[in-house]
Amino acid sequence: MHPDQTTYTTEHFERIYELAEKLIADGNAYVDGTTQEVMREEGMLGTESKDRNNTMERNRELFALIEEGIGGGIRNQRYWHNSKD
User: Fold this and answer.
1) What are the tens digits of pLDDT across the range 1-21?
2) Considering only CA atoms, which of 31, 55, 25 is closest in space to residue 39?
3) Which residues on adjacent β-strands are paired with residue 83?
4) What residues contact residue 29 under an 8 Å CB cut-off, 6+ apart?
């Protein structure tokens, strides 16, 4: 099996970023500051993240921190972009 073409995520980052912004604006995604351990535990228990119901404005603020490359973000945590089911 051979791929038709090899591409790299960095080649499409601008478009991916635009789609992430749209998902947040439409209320279909949020930025999550939950640690990996807590996220795993919440997933096993079926518990929603504390960040799941943040306002669109708050999600945009947090997403801007990701864009600025502030790895520590607020409270020295990492933030993730998650889709809502």
Assistant:
1) 787 888 888 888 889 889 989
2) 31
3) 29
4) 20, 23, 59, 81, 82, 83, 84
Nearest to 20 by CA among 68, 52, 66, 53: 66
**Does residue 65 contact residue 32 with C-beta atoms inside 8 Å?**
no
Q: Which SS3 state, helix, strand or coil, does residue 80 take?
A: strand
Place of tokens 């912004």: 21
Biggest alpha carbon–alpha carbon distance for the chain: 46
pLDDT digits (tens, 9 = 90+) for 22-71: 999 999 999 988 888 998 999 999 999 999 999 999 999 988 887 776 54
63 in Cβ contact with 81 (< 8 Å): yes
User: Which residue do the tokens 């997403």 mark?
Assistant: 63
The span from the CA of 85 to the CA of 67, in Å, is 24
